[in-house]
Write a structure and sequence with these properties.
The structure is a homodimer. Chain A is 44% helix and 16% strand. Chain A has helices at 2-8, 12-19, 27-40, 46-53, 68-83, 99-108, 123-132, 154-167, 184-197, 213-228, 242-254, 288-304; strands spanning 58-64, 87-93, 113-117, 134-138, 148-152, 173-176, 206-207, 236-238, 264-269, 282-285, 312-315, 318-320. The structure holds a DNA duplex.
Chain lengths: 334, 334
DNA sequence: TACTCGCACTAGAGCGCGCTAGTAGAGCGC
DNA sequence: GCGCTCTACTAGCGCGCTCTAGTGCGAGTA
């Protein structure tokens, strides 16, 4: 910076002003300084800037490296943060790198805001984080913690999906549970409520699972094995999420079960994965971009006004009807 | 830091020594200082540390947010970087956030090393980067640029896959091209060479495509349409990568083409996606962890010795035979 | 006793910026 | 001429840390 200032014949302070795009420099000088900076290859050092400014204007995002839906969220976080003048730092969790480590990395890089995608940590820890930075939890509720919360109205999404299936004549509708996955409990509850509402208590069935392809594959094998033992297949399956739905679909399709002719499958998330299906996966869309924007705005709002009480954004999910759901098959005469 | 020092009754310098785990403090004092720091909730500020130290010991990783294979690489980068004492910063590209922006972000955060996963930039730009930071390009060659290069021996991988298919009796083997995707040119060349070597020039066929699911789906539709016009299906397809293979598989399976009975499909990458198939995708494994480790080590080596000439690591890929490849179907009498 | 040595610790400069308080000079009204 | 404002610019402190060059002190040695 001193080099630039010297070569352009101005003070360091003026260079600073120019690089921050602030008033106080003539157009002429501005251009000259920028030209010189470009020649020298100068670029402001964000560490020093950050140190001097006291504020980093940086949001840290913790995500699970292998969660496709998280990459959708990230795609929404970047532009919104940029719009509000914030930098974004990513820190991923992997099987060998836990949440605590990922979060510590963000914190030590002076992130003022923390956007945690489906954090698995205990509320007490989240609360601690909430006191240290403007923290937003996406998709996972943290009761009592000083963090904002963005999620979608799981109940509404499931209800739409169930209404859709029932309308198509389905009665034997099975739900694959998401285990400890975020939102699973709410989805399971909503499934049960919907079955009750449609007077299908007798057909209710929740198969334990997870938000993974393997879970879908396993469930598929289970159902096929039951069929081979003479039990009827369900006519529709509401999977815990898209990944699970895809695993299930692959297993069924390979076994000659035609979707949606023989069975309908509905996912949850509308993640990029849906691209895989030539006919498209009927799924409940969580608007990743909208969730991302809300999360960013929550964090920024709280940074500008730290006294804000924890807030919650509930986004309406929307059923996206594609090719994997269709009329219920005719029951064979028994 | 001053607070900690004051409360523990020592100087700031000693606190610094203790937090850097350096000799020069008694065990007793160490424990006391750490205890006080914990009480206060002090954590060293990496921005200031970085500024003072002059070195950041940080590697920046640019990746494509939606590339599953990149997340595999990231999973390998973290532990290796940690082992060597380096921090990792992630910066993703998305449709709305180009490579230049992602890289600038890393640079302004003082990354000393740059690991670029499949960069699409011009060699001239990469060369410029190479002069500014220890830069490693993964999977994409940058002729003439001052960057290290890590990739797998595409030729060997394709050859193994082709030998495998020919051994199974396949002759009508089609290759779906990866377009501008990294490694595509080499893979295409190796496919042609293998066909020639097996005296199958007459059967050679390269279908233009891309490294996406959509490309696989389109190709599937194309092949099915040809079949409906009376043309024979290929007995095996070597896809440009796993994503393309998966799209193709979905399309074929849905149309009643049974894999591998009616057609074999081989992918490339062995990305996490393979989990989707209940029978597993036969694919050419690029060892992501090994590639990641090499990339990290290249960057670190160059940081320790900037005079190093650009190096290249060629990793041997390995065919992983799973469920989507099998004996060639009997040709129907014509 | 006088000295060296090693250990535990400290003072203070400086990393590259941002920011506050200030100056110099031009323009303007009276 | 004076005071005033406005624009363009500068001096220099301080952000939180690391690091070099020390200091003080007790133990060991001649």
């Amino acid at each position: 910076m001193a080099d630039v200032a010297g070569k352009a014949g101005v003070s360091r302070a003026l260079v600073s002003i120019i690089f921050r795009n602030q008033p106080g420099a003539s157009q002429e000088t501005r251009e000259r300084v920028l030209r010189v900076a470009d020649e020298i290859g100068y670029r402001p050092d964000s560490a020093a800037r950050l140190l001097a400014r006291g504020r980093s204007r940086t949001l840290g995002v913790m995500f699970i490296v292998h969660q496709i839906f998280h990459t959708d969220l990230i795609e929404g976080i970047y532009p919104e943060a940029e719009r509000l003048g914030y930098d974004v730092l990513l820190s991923g969790t992997t099987p060998g790198r836990g949440e605590a480590k990922a979060i510590e990395a963000l914190l030590s890089h002076r992130c003022e805001g923390l956007i945690l995608l489906a954090p698995d940590a205990e509320p007490a820890y989240l609360d601690e984080l909430g006191h240290r930075a403007a923290t937003v939890s996406v998709a996972r509720r943290a009761p009592g913690a000083r963090v904002d919360f963005v999620h979608s109205a799981e109940g509404k999404g499931v209800r739409q999906a169930m209404d859709h299936l029932v309308e198509l004549g389905h009665r034997r509708i099975v739900h694959i549970d998401g285990g400890r996955g975020p939102g699973s409990a709410e989805r399971r509850r909503a499934y049960r409520a919907a079955m009750r509402r449609h007077r299908l208590e007798a057909e209710q069935r929740v198969i334990p699972g997870a938000h993974t392809e393997e879970s879908g594959i396993e469930t598929g094998r289970l159902l096929l094995a039951e069929r081979d033992r003479g039990l009827p297949l369900p006519t529709a399956v509401l999977a815990g999420n898209d990944r699970c739905a895809m695993g299930l679909l692959m297993t069924l399709t390979r076994a000659g079960v035609e979707v949606p002719r023989d069975m309908s499958v509905v996912g949850y998330d509308d993640s990029h994965l849906s691209h895989l299906m030539p006919i498209g996966l009927t799924t409940v869309r969580q608007d990743a971009v909208l969730m991302a924007e809300n999360a960013v705005r929550f964090a920024v709002d709280r940074l500008e006004n730290p006294e804000l009480e924890p807030r919650e954004a509930v986004l309406d999910p929307k059923l996206v009807i594609r090719g994997t759901s269709g009329p219920a098959p005719q029951e064979p005469a028994r």
